[in-house]
Amino acid sequence: MKFVYLHGFASSPNSRKAQFFAGKLRELGFEVEVPHLESEGFRNLTVSGQLQVIEAVAQGGGIRLIGSSMGGYLAALYASKHPEVEKLLLLAPAFGFAERWKIRLGEAKMAEWKRQGYIEMMHYATGKPEPVGYELIEDGLSFASEPPFHQPAMIFHGTEDDVVPVSFSREFVAKRKNASLREMKSGHELTDVMEEIWEESKSFLVDG
Fold first, then answer.
1. H or E stretch including 180?
2. Residue 69 to residues 76, 110, 165, 185: CA-CA distances in angstroms?
3. pLDDT value at residue 61
4. For 23-58, what is each residue's pLDDT tens digit?
5. Which of 150, 193, 195 minimizes the C-alpha distance to 175?
6. What is the distance between the alpha carbons of residues 75 and 34, in angstroms, rounded to a whole number?
7. What is the largest distance, in Å, between two alpha-carbon atoms of the chain?
8. What is the mean pLDDT for each group of 10 consecutive residues in the chain (208 residues)?
9. pLDDT for the residue numbered 29
């Protein structure tokens, strides 16, 4: 059984959640891959490029995916095209990833991003603003905002999430019988409830 953890936007394999879940699974004797999704750099980041990274790691085999924020969205996208994916654990998944930027930044900022070709955003792995290209949006809009995967999934989402509102996950599970939602009293990062999430999801992840 192989697990793949997918980190969030402007993050890295060294994030607290990535290391936490990888560590817990490795303690149980499982193989865990935590790929660096920015294989072509933050400036050239696209959804398509990140999916290629996942495909290279999975190598067509049966895997179980854990994804945080954008990584959760990517996990859902990948699973929708790859029936060999067995299960998904999604942490505040960023459904509607490309469309959501307009809501978050506003029309003027989006127009500036498109005109300039890039925009600087805080990169949590480097600790400083880094440029990211508008190709992220152009490419992202070609993908489903709510990927129609059919594998069983557990979703954990903070009720105080001000980055990806919990309503996105509520709407997603309302339409699907294969996904369940557990709402946590937490924000987007969920780092203060990781132990609780692990205890609730462990049997789902490793059994069967």
1. strand 179-184
2. 11, 21, 11, 17
3. 86
4. 999 999 999 999 999 999 999 999 999 999 999 999
5. 150
6. 13
7. 50
8. 97 97 98 96 98 95 96 98 97 96 94 97 95 98 97 98 96 97 98 98 95
9. 97
pTM of the model: 0.97
Region of residue 21 (left: phi > 0; alpha: psi -120 to 50; beta: else): alpha
Cα within 13 Å of Cα(11), Cβ side = 22
Could you tell me the CA-to-CA distances from 163 to 23, 64, 116 in Å, in that order?
26, 25, 24
Domains observed in the chain: 2-96+146-206 (3.40.50.1820)
List the helix and strand counts (H, then E) for the chain.
8, 8
- Cα separation, 62 vs 184, whole angstroms: 29
Cα–Cα distances (Å) from 78 to 56, 85, 198, in that order, read 12, 8, 23
Residue 145, judged by CB atoms within 10 A of its CB (0-12, 13-18, 19+), counts as middle
Nearest to 71 by CA among 127, 120, 17: 17
